[in-house]
Amino acid sequence: MRKAMAEAEVGDDVYREDPTINRLEDRAAAIFGKEAALFVPTGTMGNTIAVKIHTNHGEEVICDSRSHLLDWELSMAAWFSGCLLRTIDTSDGILNWDLIKRKLRPNGPHCAPTTLVEIENTHNMAGGTVYPQAVIDDVCDQAHAAGLKVHMDGARIFNAIAASGTPAALMTGKVDSVNFCLSKGLGAPVGSILVGTRDAIACGRMYRKRLGGGMRQAGILAAAGLFALEEMPKRLSEDHANAQYLARELAGLNGIAIDPSKVATNIVIFDIAGTGISAPDFSVRLKERGVLMNGIGGSLVRAVTHYDADRRACEQAIATIREVVT
Prior knowledge:
By secondary structure, the protein is of the alpha/beta class. It has helices at 2-6, 19-32, 43-54, 68-71, 76-79, 97-101, 133-145, 157-164, 168-171, 198-210, 219-231, 236-251, 279-288, 311-325, and strands at residues 36-40, 60-64, 84-88, 114-120, 149-154, 177-181, 192-196, 267-271, 294-295, 300-304.
């Protein structure tokens, strides 16, 4: 990846003259079966642009109550797009149409109309859960029939693809836009991609500039992204196997509660209430011993497996957690 970055051919991307970025965008669009793609510095910027493309000020967006769009993006849907996020509680992060239709707001003298549905695949705070394909397709069909757009926050969509075996173009064939991350499990140092229709991405390019994301000779970053896109999805099953190992080992430790059968991809969320240690203190004790995990509210702790955390690192993590809890 670093060799590709060092040898990257570059140009000025604001003028669409960076050949490496152009190749990355074309390849991403082809993989997802969409007309066009846009390289952005971060997933937050990609989601922000997507909401802006599909909505007008004063409208509503439906999302899960633990979605990244709501909790971790500094209220950009409100700040930049002028939209209200109307949330739905789920047990597993999966929205279906029966849940969504109850929250739809009609256009009228009292209600801000619903214009966009956002789904997250895999769902981060639900523990890396994967949307069933039938649910994605049904949400899209019903939303489109109601005149709504559907955006997928697919920051870790290649984990969903690896877990389900469903090709990207089939998984996202009916959604209007997808934002996915080139870092996370794919290992690039920076960058995300937004894919959609040609007109939507042309509009998104203007919003990217307004958000400060117009880059110049950024082909050195796109070169890493191209390598990540072509090579790194092949090894995501290793991360999933390591996450299963973590979950099984954690389930055997006193004071820790987790159901390994619910670990679907590379995110492991477990409850440490029984240890009598607070989540912030737990994280501090682990960090002092060289293991990085964060609390995510209450007594829950989240661990994520990835390219830099191999089986040996997972074994070290379990040994360290065992030491801390005993």
